[in-house]
Specification:
The chain has helices at residues 12-24, 35-42, 61-69, 88-96, 109-121, 159-170, 178-186, 196-208, and strands spanning 4-8, 28-32, 49-52, 79-83, 101-104, 133-135, 139-142, 147-150, 153-155, 176-177, 215-218, 222-225. The protein is an alpha/beta fold. It folds into 2 domains: 4-121, 3-Layer(aba) Sandwich (Rossmann fold); 133-225, Orthogonal Bundle (Arc Repressor Mutant, subunit A). The strands form 3 sheets. A 5-stranded parallel β-sheet has the order 2-1-3-4-5, sandwiched between helices. Helix 1 (12-24) packs across helix 5 (109-121) and helix 6 (159-170) crosses helix 8.
């Protein structure tokens, strides 16, 4: 049975276009034209992914995404933003609040379907994880549960932030280039801009608080974790 995708856009023709192409690719689709209808729906049924327009008649897409990512029940639902806002600053804001990808209008339906597949595949081919991985004495990562504890207290990370932390923590001291991290996240099918990883790392460090210093920048190369 195909995975369920929620498509939210105030333009009916966009909802129909995206829905038809996703259904051809084997997905189930629910279309919505405003934020309230989406939020009412996900209280009853959790989609596997949300395609979210930023300029909706009853709410701002950035705020919707931020709200979803702040709630434990919804934080692991991937969000792809689909919008006419193509400025880099908008993309950075979208990634900072937890969006998993960002597609600008006008768009290729083939590319959008490919991005949906990539985002959904991210967690499906992980190696069998250990029960937990520790960074120092305070940070503990639970790969199966997508959970991170600092001094025993859970912190909320997006799925992308979690995967970056998990990758670095599995090989403490190893330096991973930005391209290696992107390939790990997007499995070679990435279509992203250069600052993507830097944005995620900045946000991850902020959430780790004083322990964010364990993620070291290696100038001109990438990142590593030092205990």
């Amino acid at each position: 049975m195909g995975k369920l995708i929620a498509v939210v856009d105030d333009e009916a023709d966009i909802v129909e276009l995206v829905s038809v192409n996703l259904e051809k690719a084997g997905f189930k689709v629910e279309g919505f034209y405003n934020a309230n209808d989406l939020l009412s729906f996900i209280k009853k049924k959790t989609p596997d992914l949300i395609i979210l327009d930023l300029m909706l008649p009853d709410a701002d897409g950035f705020e919707i995404c931020k709200n979803l990512k702040s709630q434990e029940k919804y934080t692991n639902i991937p969000v792809i933003m689909l919008t006419a806002k193509g400025e880099e600053v908008d993309k950075v804001v979208g990634l900072e609040i937890g969006a998993d990808d960002y597609v600008t209008k006008p768009f290729s339906t083939r590319e959008l379907v490919a991005r949906v597949k990539v985002v959904l595949r991210r967690g499906e081919k992980e190696e069998e994880p250990k029960k937990s991985i520790k960074i120092g004495e305070e940070i503990e990562i639970f790969p199966k549960e997508y959970k991170v504890l600092i001094s025993g207290k859970k912190i909320e990370l997006t799925s992308t932030e979690f995967r970056i932390l998990h990758l670095l923590a599995k090989r403490k001291g190893w330096v991973f280039s930005r391209d290696q991290i992107l390939d790990y996240l997007y499995e070679g099918d990435r279509i992203v801009f250069d600052r993507t990883i830097d944005v995620h790392i900045t946000h991850l460090r902020d959430k780790l608080g004083k322990f964010g210093e364990c993620i070291k920048s290696i100038r001109g190369i990438g990142y590593k974790i030092e205990e």
